[in-house]
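Data availability excerpt. The first of two example chains:
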Amino acid sequence: MYKIFTTAVGLLSIFAVTQGALAQDAPVAPSGAEAEAELSIDLPELPAFELPDLTGEMRSLEELKGRVTMVNFFFPSCVGCNQELPFLKRLYEKYRDFGFSLISINIHPAQNRQLTRWAQKGGYSHPILRTESDAWRKAFRVEGTPTNCLLGDDNTMLKRYEGYSPHNLERMEEAVRRMLGLDK
């Protein structure tokens, strides 16, 4: 009986995570001082970083200033990540000319060798960055994957989505459109 109970609790936990029960969502607000005044939810700040992309070029958070950016934390063998990334790819292709950027950070260094082949197979053209230690997972407070942080044009984190959920995908696109001024 205990085994059935623990199995049921485990399945319910998995269902809750896959349905986006862990998503945090702060109201979309403009960047700068207005954003600071309107946002009261405790979203962690992303630490500055400089990480290599798949070609070895160093990329930083600073270079994203001036654009609305989704920072995606993933790893290649993550099932939810592989369900979500095709959507993020389409989002990037659809809105990049309007000022939207997407950057993905692999948080599982043991899978760095797979990244180039994995990215080619998925047809991903946005920057994909490598990490060399698990310290990144702690620094960015990533407890599960996928985790996405939506940044305003001043790199202030305005929204955080944890776990894969079709509902999160809809909310992500709505937030991106509003932040780009496409939905007023």
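And the second chain:
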Amino acid sequence: MTKSGPSCQAPIDALMKKRRSRTSTPTPDDRAESLEQPVITAGVRLWVDVNETSFLGRGRIELLRRIETYGSISAAARSLNMSYRTAWKHIESMNRISSSVLVETEIGGHRGGGSQLTPLGKELIEIFTRFSDTISSRTKRMETEIAELIGHETNKINEIKETR
């Protein structure tokens, strides 16, 4: 025996309405409602290539910071959930591309060795961070301008609706 009646029809009606709403073209009213609370997100990725080879990016800068903090490539790699081999490849690549090394390593010894940034490595962190902060600040201003512009457009749509 199949069930029928209002109790079974309601879920089917809700499902059909949901399907129609996904496939139908939005009306001007729908568009105005969706623009009332815009969420604007803008982003920019910053990296530096040398002769089309990756040199610096957010991940490598963070690796350098962690090496400075921990004094160890392996500890820095662990803190980033990165394998030692991957961390070493990044450092090796940066050192090879640069005219001077960014990370110096000590092998063995009574303390078990260690790593430290050279003055050049520290300066690159500082420059990259300043560059990144400048871009982030300008991107935030652009987000605000776009949000204000969209808000203005939304008001125009609402004014048009009210005059009809």
